[in-house]
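Worked Example 4.2. Read the sequence first, then its structure tokens.
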Amino acid sequence: MGKTIIQKIFENHSKQSAVVGEIIDIDIDVRVARDFGGANVVKNLEENNLKLDDPDKTYFTFDCNPGGCDQKYATNQHICRIFARKNNVKIFDISSGIGTHLVIDEKIAKPGGTIVSTDSHANILGAIGAFGQGMGDKDIAHAFAYGKVWFKVPPTIKIELKGRPSNITTPKDVALKLLQEFGANGLLGFSAEIYGDYVDMLPLDARITIASMATEMGGIIILFPFKKAITADSDADYEDAVKVDIEGLKPMVSLPGHPEDVVSIDELDNVKVDSGFIGSCTNGRISDMRAAAKIMKDRKIAPGRVLKIVPSTDDVWKKCLEGGLIKIFKDAGALFGSAGCAGCAAGQIGQTGTGEIAISSGNRNFVGKQGKGDTYLASPETVAASLIAGYITSIDEIPDKPVSINVPESSHKISHLKKDLKISRLTSVEGKAWVIKKDNIDTDMIFHNRYLAITDINEMGQYTFDNLEGYENFSKKANPGDIVIAGKNFGAGSSRQQAVDCFKSLKISVIIAESFGAIYERNAINSAMPILIARDITSKVSDGDILSVDFTTGKIINKTKNTGINVKPFSKSQLDIYKNGGLLKK
């Protein structure tokens, strides 16, 4: 049987055979830490007396808060700078741009290569036929120190795009169509390969747009075949083959709160907007800037609205300057910022206030992700058209006069709690169940990005679930030893380690879910936070039930209902890491 692309990449970077479902060690060509995760990577290395495997393959990228406008971010950036100076590590410092784009544009990452980063959209490297994976700070520290990390070889789904979209439809609309097709967890645990006549004609920028949204589908990566470097065998073994019809596809829009809740723009009824954002790793390339400028030339942003534009890299910024695009944006009334992640990170341009309606070219619109407002997702072209019109519309439906503005409200709350941290190494636990009957609980719901600069685990617990509706007071009510029960795709979204460590801070004994986000699962295992996967667990356990859980046998006893549940126990690797106290402990 032939090999898929990801199997070939893995085997080219390992001494082991890439058998689907097996765990193997993979050599990592490029190892990257960003500004919010970088300080924790440094902390992990220094606390465990670990040295760098190869400084020439090691990088820091300051893309979340390129201005250092938050004191904790500025401190974390400086920690990374000091470490880099001592160890001859290259930094792409403030205003350089988004790290995943830089490693592509600077040809640091190559087709068929491997890269890991604290960026959950590192799978953007699929655009050049390379393997990229977002990871937590312990994984990245391990890659820095040893040049390799473990992976479970994923099965692959083959995606074929059929037909051609309409002439005003963009690659972002196609990405949203895929998200509509697969949902938030349709690619959970899978690698995907994408094919079709439409795919063959796509330039790099377009491939980046589609590849970057694999994370929102729960996928490990969407790989574009790179014929000069690496392709799948003709008899490769695929888990499934899916055809997606894009014939005549019109512009698409994701509704607030859920990237996968996608509709055709025709289904929206003149939704008024207060603000817009063009940028992110999904749509911050020069082609995106030029497309927006073409629409905005000799036009004005609707009165009372705000449009924020942030290029992906400093090179894109300079091309905007040289090509006169910045003048077009400024003449139209838009704000044009330094290169970086912007709206996806709490520390820079793109946040929203309570009641604000925004439309963004980003990849995520989780509740609270960009602030307290509601965010729709769309292409840069749709964002530009909508900010001129004052309501969500496509480029062929821009009215002669904009509509009037809405007025938002504002409010904010924050709780305070501090607990000491003690970690148990028991292989069986007993505790009260918190049953959360929700799927796709994302990392912003678990631990919001406004707290990402926190590095002290003792401070993290107080913010657990404070962005999950109905569970804002979880940290005040939870007791040491309690058990969290949840649905599918728990921990979807970001690579942030804090979304795991906040539960350790509260001394939660185990998290049991129907499935976990791929990065979240790694982070939990690597930090010795007990997790188990149990099908239909939310229907078998009630809130407040007392459970006894054995990690080595997978036996769960519901002492309240006098029933038993059998699940897959810890794997040998998970048990070894857990007993060791974490991936980096000795």
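Now turn to a second chain, presented in exactly the same format:
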Amino acid sequence: MRKSNLLFAVSVLFLVKTTAFAQDELKAVTDTIAIDEVVVTGTKASVNRNQVPYTLSVVKNSEIANSSESSVLPVLSQQVPGLFVTERGVSGFGVANGSAGQISIRGIGASPTTQVLVLLNGNPQYMGIMGHPLSDAYRSANIERVEVIRGPASALYGSNAMGGVVNIITKEQVKQGKSAYLQQEYGSYNTLKTASGIGFKSGGFEVFTGVSHDQTDGHREASYFNILDGYIKAGYRFNKHLKAMVDFSLAKFKGADPGYDTLDVIKHGDTLDILRGMGAVVLNNQFDKTDGSFRFFYNFGTHDITSGYFSKDYNMGIMVYQNVHLFEGNTLTAGIDIKTYGGNAENLKFHSQIIDTSINEIGTYVSIQQQVFQKLVFNGSLRLENHTVFGQEWIPSVGMTYQILENSTLKASYSKGYRSPTIRELFIKSFPPLPNDKLKPEYLNSAECGVEQYLINRRLRMEVTAFWMKSLQLIQPVINEMGAKQFQNTLGARNVGIELSLSHRIKETLYWNANYTYIDMEKAVVGTPIHKLGATIAYNPGKWNANLTFQQISDLYLNLGNRVLKESYQLLNAKIGYQFLESTNLYIKAENLLNQSYTINYGYPMPCITFMGGLSFSL
């Protein structure tokens, strides 16, 4: 038996053994019993997370706020098993050569991130030309929670969801009346971070808006970053059945690429000036036996880079789905996604056209969830994807959850992942790797099995998942017969591993969580560690509040090819605050307290110890 198959089999056996844990030890008071989280990303219907057959993580607003990170992606890298995000400095990820912010889930994600789909309130977020999200656009100030599917979700979301889905769900005004907050930080490398928001709700009308601004000189020469972004989300409930929502966000950021530090003489890279925006109009309906949504979304961007590259791109579409509850325990979902994306790009230095085109996709899908005898839930989905270039593709997924004991749930699923080549990979010849209009879509077959266990009167939650994935026809740069790098379909590879997640609320004022991931990759992937461990402890006694986070990264691949480079490091971050008024919190935080010298993005060393001080106010 191959090593990978043996590992997967042993992992599954271990998962089953965990269900023998005791269920009723160390009883706690009833007012702090954990309540099953309601999620929407895994099924398109609002269901308890333990009924979703796929492995799904939820990062809450409190976890994001405790980190004081202005970008949400580093928080996900710390909190979500199997997910890793590359970084290159104090703030800012950048674009083009030397950029960071690449997202990988279980070793699938690539650089740039075209194999993991990022959603904003359920709306796809990727550039029309390049096909990947802009990591700098996702600020943490106005985020309510993030739901992450750790594995293929193409059956529900189509192309780009081949490796997983990150759904960023923004704040909205829930309570009647007003709310407001203001937060400001200043610290190392002349780094200033400001965030503010205000909300209002009266009767059926609600609105929430926020503005944030970051700027830093950076820890290296020519590594400055500056971003200003705004966001508004408004809604109106016509009656108990119909509600309309409108949201719009706009981000303007500038930055510089300091260049690789691996050269004797450092050559600075390009500077960039980018505008990204997104708008959506949504109409939700909810009745006794049916509920659903109609939404129109439009993403747009302008990129101006000193290399001469200038582009305007768009990604727009209509998404409609309806859930029907035919009988008790049954949910039937049917939906259609109509998308078009593209844009135009030119080289201003040479006054030459690079690309001016668009691509259309239409996906129709049906999903059935059936509960049997209160303990067993079956879920199956089938999607027909119709692509302008590649024609039709069937994408299935099946899964089940079984409540073994009162506080133990077994999950198992099989999913097919799918990604069509981007416009960049097919047609753009202006910079390497060269395009290839003969490319075929990528595929992924994935199987996983996991156990979710609650202990100590549901104060302690444990999740263990074993996964196996086999990718096919992966698109990668390959040296062609002319000696140049060109995008080509390769044989693909196998990834197998195990993920562990623990969270424990010891008492109202003390909470900790931890996660661990091991991935055995048949072919190494840049930006993916073999071992990843993260842990957080938060303590809030009275007016004091503090948290401590630790991350251990081992065997992170930085560079492949003739020279394989790996990195291992440990990070310890701390934050302590004092609430000296009812709604005002003063805090200080330090990152990399161990003063580690380390690199996440090849050629871009990370800063040593940094300090920030901040003040937050809420109403």
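Notes for the reader: DSSP finds five helices and 35 strands in the chain. The chain has one domain: 3-618.
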